[in-house]
Design goal:
The complex is a heterodimer of chains A (544) and B (140).
Chain A lengths: L25 H12 L2 H20 L7 H10 L3 H8 L8 H30 L15 E6 L3 H14 L3 E2 L11 E6 L2 H26 L1 E8 L4 E3 L7 E4 L12 E11 L9 E11 L7 E6 L4 E3 L2 E18 L4 E3 L6 E2 L6 E7 L7 E8 L2 E4 L2 E4 L8 E9 L19 E3 L1 E2 L2 E5 L1 E4 L4 E4 L4 E18 L3 H20 L3 E10 L2 E10 L7 H12 L9 E2 L4
Antiparallel strand pairs in A: 1-26, 1-27, 2-3, 3-25, 4-6, 4-24, 5-7, 7-8, 8-9, 10-11, 11-12, 11-24, 13-14, 14-15, 15-18, 16-17, 18-19, 18-22, 20-21, 23-24, 25-26
Helix pairs in contact in A: 2-5, 5-7, 7-8
Chain B lengths: L1 E3 L5 E3 L7 E7 L4 H16 L4 E7 L5 H10 L6 E3 L20 E5 L5 E6 L5 H12 L6
Parallel strand pairs in B: 3-4, 4-5
Antiparallel strand pairs in B: 1-2, 3-6, 6-7
Helix pairs in contact in B: 1-3
Classes of the chains: A alpha+beta (544), B alpha/beta (140).
């Protein structure tokens, strides 16, 4: 309706357009779409899609899970990286397409649950269905005759059925259906089903709250008196939720006092760690008292709403570099990154203050170095024979152009590799053990290996809504059990005068399908007949 | 807010109350800190009368690395050595430093007047900013 005319507006409607068969009006199309979206089939397909969409999240390193691993992977796959970036595969759980599936599923579940809630509410309050005219046509029924009066039988039937946890409809004497008792039980099955669906929503909301308002970060902390304070600048990698506010970070701090690893000394896993523990002291805020905690894997420390997890450990070789003038230009522990279970590690040491040239070292660290057939091998994770093997670079390490760079990567673009004095074709490699010092060629300076320190990798996360998620999962399980194990059943007992006395008809119907109601029927009949009705065997008629 | 400087002498920001205080958070191996520092040093010399400067050194595992940095850039003011970042905790819940480098300017009452997340824009802009804060009447 974008045309404007100068004519006064008339309310004369245009001619009705012809409808072709199969053509949907706008509202009908919307309704059809809504029906499709809220169908069980769609919900299941979406659930499957959600599972499929999570697959790349577990195969491709995720920025939010391990930023370091991700950047390493990206360095190794220069071709795939831009494509994956475009598809958001490094941040699957934050990607728009993942959110789309998530939201559609949420909408589908809501659209499914809400109308059913209304129906269920009505059904809850409805009286049990009146007895059908011919009870003997029901698949499970029994008849017998008795000399008790119909009223006695019916009253007894009401009592028996109530004992068997049936809800019994009020009989209006003289009204329609007054000659029969109608009862029903197991309405909670549908309730369980609804609770299950509703709980899925709760779980989704809980997850959403956690990922929108929470954060997750990782940091490497030196073991010997090293510490951490909960401030953004202290994290090595940090993955905030969309609505995360740094002002709400709890001002806690902790120091690692002692760290012990339990090494496997023999057997198949020799050289692996069986477990490790960090003894830490922490303060919830700068003014709170100091407390102790033993931090173990899977035993996080909770401070307020934040959890501190110990997830790994490794080594920092302590290396001192002196430049050509003999001045110390770099010293102290440098974090090396483990490449595997045996803590064989890779690292980089930068000395930007060296003269005449900046010095950079890049190489590997063997916690327990052994030479086997001339090859250097690392045999275990404990540092029993620590050895450094580094290559040397000189020149501009790229630290002065202001662009951020990783501490674990040596920028060699403007630096040159130092070669062996006796063979200019082969790179110089310096091998050091603690206490040793090596002179670099060409008056560059010297490198000494002073010792080894350890570090812990700690993950810190705050996930609000976690209790909501957990209670959602628990409620979903309870609801699921209810909807699987509760049997909705209807039962009727009719008593009327027959040719040989009072004829009693009993029928039980299972409404969930497929369940055997014979035991229930037998029990009801037995209880109705009781012992005072004489040994009158129920005559069974069954239509198979 | 207080601590020990790179030489182990006590530094107290609280004692600087009454003056405008510029607090710069830095780390010796961060390239932006290295490019920003000469500008800060100039700014501190220019603002000599109006403002006190303090550095907070974080994340350096060895005090020598921080000392080498301060020597290299001839930083005239003290820096609190705080490898675990404890010195930053008093900022919690405010315009806290979020990146390295960050620079916080406190007014004469010790309240946070401005926070620069990242390197300072340029020496002149920064000097103007600090002078503006210093020109505020002391009664707030």
């Amino acid at each position: 309706m974008s045309t404007t005319t100068d004519q006064p507006r008339t309310s004369a409607p245009g001619p009705e357009p012809e409808r072709r068969s199969g053509e949907l009006g706008f509202v009908e199309l919307l309704r059809w779409t809504w029906r499709q979206l809220t169908s069980m089939r769609t919900a299941l397909i979406l659930l499957l899609l959600l599972a499929l969409a999570s697959v790349p999240g577990s195969f491709i390193p995720q920025k939010g899970v391990d930023a370091l691993k991700t950047s390493t992977w990206q360095g190794q796959h220069p071709k795939l990286t831009p494509i994956y970036e475009r598809l958001g595969l490094f941040e699957v759980y934050d990607s728009p397409w993942f959110a789309a599936i998530y939201l559609l599923l949420g909408l589908s579940v809501i659209g499914c649950v809400v109308p059913r809630l209304r129906i269920y509410w009505k059904a809850m309050r409805a009286a049990p269905v009146r007895a059908p005219r011919y009870l003997t046509r029901m698949p499970d029924h029994a008849t017998y005759t008795t000399d008790a009066s119909p009223e006695e039988v019916l009253e007894r039937a009401e009592r028996v059925l109530r004992e068997r946890r049936f809800r019994v409809a009020d009989r209006s004497p003289g009204g329609p259906g007054a000659d029969a008792v109608a009862a029903e039980k197991g309405k909670l099955r549908e309730a369980g089903n609804l609770v299950f669906h509703f709980s899925i929503l709760v779980v989704m909301v809980g997850f959403a709250i956690g990922s929108l308002f929470g954060y997750k970060g990782g940091v490497i902390v030196p073991v010997d008196g090293g510490g951490f304070s909960n401030n953004l600048t202290q994290y090595d990698d940090f993955d905030p939720g969309t609505f995360f506010d740094p002002a709400g970070m709890e001002p806690f701090s902790f120091q690692i006092q002692d760290f012990t690893v339990d090494w496997v000394e023999s057997g198949r896993n020799q050289g692996m760690s069986r477990g490790f523990v960090s003894e830490i002291t922490y303060k919830e805020s700068p003014d709170s008292p100091q407390k102790d905690y033993h931090l173990r894997v899977n035993e996080p420390l909770s401070i307020g709403g934040t959890d501190v997890f110990l997830i790994g450990h490794g080594y920092s070789p302590v290396v001192t570099i002196r430049d050509g003038t003999g001045k110390v230009v770099a010293t102290g522990p440098t974090v090396f990154l483990p490449q595997g279970q045996d803590l064989f590690s890779f690292g980089v040491i930068k000395a930007p203050y060296a003269n005449p040239d900046q010095i950079g070292l890049e190489g590997v660290f063997y916690p327990t170095y052994v030479k086997i057939d001339g090859d250097p091998i690392n045999v275990m994770g404990d540092d029993r024979n620590p050895t450094l093997s580094m290559q040397v670079y000189r020149g501009d390490l790229g630290l002065d152009d202001g662009s951020p760079q990783s501490v674990y990567i040596l920028d060699k673009d403007r630096a040159t590799q130092v070669m062996r004095p006796d063979d200019p074709e082969r790179p110089l490699r310096i091998d050091l053990q603690p206490g040793q010092r090596v002179r670099l060629p060409n008056g560059l300076g010297s490198v000494s290996f002073d010792g080894v320190e350890e570090w812990n990798r700690v993950q810190i996360s705050r996930t609000p809504g976690m209790w909501l998620t957990l209670s959602g999962v628990v409620a979903a399980l309870i609801g699921l059990m209810g909807s699987l194990f509760i049997r909705p059943r209807r039962a009727w007992v009719r008593a009327r005068r027959g040719e040989q006395g009072i004829l009693v008809e009993v029928a039980v119907l299972d409404r969930s399908g497929g369940a055997d109601v014979t035991p229930e029927l037998d029990a009801v009949v037995a209880a109705l007949q009781g012992r005072d009705d004489g040994p009158d065997d129920p005559r069974r008629a069954r239509d198979e | 807010m207080a601590g020990e400087d790179l030489q182990g002498d006590p530094v107290s920001v609280t004692k600087m109350r009454g003056k405008v205080v510029v607090i710069n958070v830095w780390w010796s191996l961060c390239p932006p800190c290295r490019t920003e520092m000469p500008e800060l040093v100039e700014a501190s010399e220019e603002l000599g009368k109006d403002a006190e400067f303090v550095g907070i050194n974080i994340r350096d595992n060895a005090v020598e690395s921080a000392r080498l940095f301060a020597e290299q850039f001839k930083v005239p003011y003290p820096s609190i050595y705080s490898p675990d970042g404890q010195a930053l905790l008093p900022f919690a819940g405010t315009l806290s430093p979020r990146t390295i480098p960050s620079t916080v300017v406190l007014d004469r009452q010790g309240r946070i007047a401005a926070t620069v997340i990242g390197p300072i824009p340029s020496k002149n802009t920064f000097v103007d900013l600090v002078e503006g804060i210093a020109a505020e009447p002391a009664d707030g």
